[in-house]
UniProtKB/TrEMBL annotation:
Its main location: membrane. GO terms for biological process: intracellular protein transport; vesicle-mediated transport. This is MHD domain-containing protein. It holds the Pfam family Clat_adaptor_s. Residues 184-440 form the MHD domain.
C-alpha cells in the first residue's frame, strides 16, 4: 500500500500540483496518463498501466487526482486515499475546482505532506487536520466565482518550540479531540438506500441491488460512546431470538474507522466513539431482488415514418401511505427530433436537446397513484418503425421516498453513554432514492396516419396544445 507520487491535473492533463514521495519514478511519466485515459474504450478503468507504472486516479469536476506506483500495491486502498484527500480539499475550499487549486497551492502542499509519509497514507480526518494546519484558504464562491479568505480554520497560538499537533493525532481516538462542548447534545442518523435497477418493458427485472449507507451528524459533548442496534439477521440467528419483524442480512459492510470491528465480529454490536460533525458510519449492499418502486410503461407509435408519439405511464408501486418526492423522468428521443410537443397529466415537461430527452418532473407522487404523459415529435426524414426502435436508450428515473426503506433495515436502538451522564436526543430518519434506475422502452409500432389510434392521439394533442 504505497504510492511513489501524487499529482493534481487539470482537465487537459497539465500538472497543477505534484509531490514526489519516494523518488523512484521519473516525474515526467505523468505525461503518459491522459493519452491512456483518452485511448481507453467506453468508460476508462480507475487503474491504467504503462511501462511498468500504474496510474490510480479519480476525476472530480475539471480535475484529475492521480497516484503513481511501480509496486504491486493495494489499488482499492489508494483509491480510498484519493477520495479522502478530495473530501479534505472540499472541506477546506468548499468547492474543488482548478481555480481553488491554483489559489491554495501552499496549503495543498502542507496537506499532502501531512496525509502521506513516504508514500504511505497517514491521517485524513479534516476536523483534526484543521487544528494544526492553520494556513488560511481562499474559498471559491460557486455563484460569483470570486475568491475570498476561507473561514472556520482556527488560528493556533504559538507555543514554546513551535506549534504542536493536537493531542488527538497521537491518541487512540485520533478522529475526535477532547474537550468538545455543545449547548444541546443531539445525534442525527439517516438510513439512506439507493436502488440500482434495470428492467425490460414487460416488467422483467434484469438487474437490481440496494446500496445503503448510515449517515450521522453528531453534536455531543465530551467523549461519548454510542451503541447502535439493527435488525441484523445474523445477530438474531446467533442469539436464538425470533422476531415478527423482517431481519436483514447485510453484505459488503464497510465501517468508519471509529467502529470497534472486534466487537462487531464477536457479537454484531456496532460500538463506537464518533467524530464530531457529519460522517458515514457504515455502508452496505444487498443483492436481494427489488420490485420497481416507480414503474414506467411506454407505448411508442410511428406515423408514416415522419412523426412519433409516446404514451408514458408512471405508477408508484410502493405503499400508499408513502409519497415520492422530486421525481424526474428522462424520456429519450432521437437526436434529430423536431418540434416536440408534450402534455403531462401532472407536473411539467420540457425538451432538453443537450440530453437528447424530454424531461418530465413531478413534485409529489403518492403510493399506488398513476399518471401519464403524452408527447410527439417529428423526424426530418422518413424512417421505418424498426429503425426508430433500434437505438432507444432506457428511460431514466430519479426520485426520493422519505420515511421508507426497501430492504426493511431498521434501527432498533441508539444508545449514548458519556461519563458526565447528560441526556442526548437521537433522531432517526429513513430515505430511499434512485441510483442507476433505468427502464427500457417498448419497441416502436407503425400506425397508419388515418387509423383510429392516430386520430385519437391527434385529438388529444390538439386539445392539450
Amino acid at each position: 500500500m504505497v504510492l511513489s507520487a501524487v499529482f493534481i491535473l487539470d482537465i487537459k492533463g497539465k500538472v497543477l500540483i505534484s509531490r514526489n514521495y519516494r523518488g523512484d519514478i521519473n516525474m515526467s511519466a505523468i505525461d503518459n496518463f491522459v493519452p491512456l485515459v483518452v485511448d481507453a474504450e467506453d468508460e476508462p478503468p480507475p487503474v491504467v498501466a504503462s511501462d511498468g507504472l500504474h496510474f490510480i486516479y479519480i476525476k472530480h469536476n475539471d480535475l484529475y487526482l492521480v497516484g503513481i506506483t511501480r509496486k504491486n500495491t493495494n489499488a482499492a486502498a489508494q483509491l480510498v486515499y484519493l477520495h479522502k484527500f478530495r473530501a479534505i480539499l472540499e472541506d477546506y475550499f468548499r468547492t474543488l475546482r482548478e481555480e481553488s487549486i491554483r489559489d491554495n497551492f501552499v496549503l495543498i502542499y502542507e496537506l499532502l505532506d501531512e496525509t502521506m509519509d513516504f508514500g504511505h497514507p497517514q491521517f485524513t480526518e479534516p476536523s483534526i487536520l484543521k487544528e494544526y494546519i492553520t494556513q488560511e484558504s481562499n474559498a471559491l464562491d460557486i455563484i460569483t466565482g470570486a475568491v475570498g479568505l476561507g473561514s472556520g480554520i482556527p488560528s493556533q497560538a504559538s507555543t514554546p518550540g513551535g506549534p504542536r499537533p493536537p493531542q488527538a493525532v497521537t491518541n487512540a481516538v485520533s478522529w475526535r479531540p477532547e474537550g468538545i462542548r455543545h449547548r444541546k447534545n443531539e445525534v442525527y442518523l439517516d438510513v439512506v438506500e439507493s436502488i440500482n435497477l434495470l428492467a425490460n418493458p414487460d416488467g422483467t427485472v434484469l438487474r437490481s441491488e440496494i446500496i445503503g449507507a448510515i449517515k450521522m451528524r453528531v453534536q455531543l459533548s465530551g467523549m461519548p460512546e454510542l451503541r447502535l442496534g439493527l435488525n441484523d439477521k445474523v445477530l438474531f440467528e446467533s442469539t436464538g431470538r425470533s422476531t415478527k419483524a423482517k431481519a436483514v442480512e447485510l453484505e459488503d459492510v464497510k465501517f468508519h474507522q471509529c467502529v470497534r470491528l472486534s466487537r462487531f465480529d464477536t457479537d454484531r454490536t456496532i460500538s463506537f466513539i464518533p467524530p464530531d460533525g457529519e460522517f458515514d458510519l457504515m455502508t452496505y449492499r444487498l443483492n436481494t431482488p427489488v420490485r420497481p418502486l416507480i414503474w414506467v410503461e411506454s407505448i411508442v407509435e410511428t406515423y408514416s415514418g415522419t412523426r412519433v408519439a409516446y404514451l408514458i405511464k408512471l405508477t408508484g408501486q410502493f405503499r400508499r401511505r408513502s409519497t415520492a418526492n422530486s421525481i424526474e423522468v428522462a424520456i429519450p428521443v432521437p437526436d434529430d427530433a423536431d418540434t416536440p410537443k408534450f402534455r403531462p397529466a401532472v407536473g411539467s415537461a420540457r425538451y432538453a436537446p443537450e440530453r437528447g430527452a424530454i424531461i418530465w418532473t413531478i413534485k409529489l407522487l403518492p403510493g399506488g397513484r398513476e399518471t401519464a404523459l403524452r408527447c410527439s415529435f417529428g423526424l426530418p426524414s422518413v424512417r421505418r418503425a424498426e429503425d426508430i426502435a433500434k437505438r432507444p436508450r432506457p428511460i431514466g428515473v430519479k426520485f426520493e421516498i422519505p420515511y421508507f426503506t426497501t430492504s426493511g433495515l431498521q434501527v432498533r436502538y441508539l444508545k449514548v453513554v458519556e461519563r458526565s451522564g447528560y441526556q442526548a436526543l437521537p433522531w432517526v430518519r429513513y430515505i430511499t432514492k434512485n441510483g442507476d434506475y433505468d427502464i427500457r422502452m417498448a419497441e416502436a409500432v407503425a400506425v397508419a396516419a388515418n387509423s383510429e389510434s392516430a386520430l385519437n392521439n391527434a385529438a388529444a394533442f390538439a386539445e392539450g396544445n
